[in-house]
């Protein structure tokens, strides 16, 4: 795991979360906590996936949980710039039709 697996930039209206490296069972809990924490304190969260080299089902589950939380609390949750690896996984699972992806 890299030193800056998760980095974020926050203002009153939007929290942008930047993820890099590999997202798997060893660190997906940290991702989940970061996403849910951001959703509790800002109206919109955007997760930048351009630096993600690999993601497993636990990482996908953390983002699905974020989307469910956002939907049930009238918040916005977006994914942006998925790396080719992440995009192919999202498309294979048809999650590209579930998430808002920029």
From TrEMBL:
<protein>
    <recommendedName>
        <fullName>Anti-sigma factor antagonist</fullName>
    </recommendedName>
</protein>
<dbReference type="Pfam" id="PF01740">
    <property type="entry name" value="STAS"/>
</dbReference>
<comment type="similarity">
    <text>Belongs to the anti-sigma-factor antagonist family.</text>
</comment>
<dbReference type="InterPro" id="IPR036513">
    <property type="entry name" value="STAS_dom_sf"/>
</dbReference>
<dbReference type="InterPro" id="IPR002645">
    <property type="entry name" value="STAS_dom"/>
</dbReference>
<dbReference type="InterPro" id="IPR003658">
    <property type="entry name" value="Anti-sigma_ant"/>
</dbReference>
<feature type="domain" description="STAS">
    <location>
        <begin position="4"/>
        <end position="102"/>
    </location>
</feature>
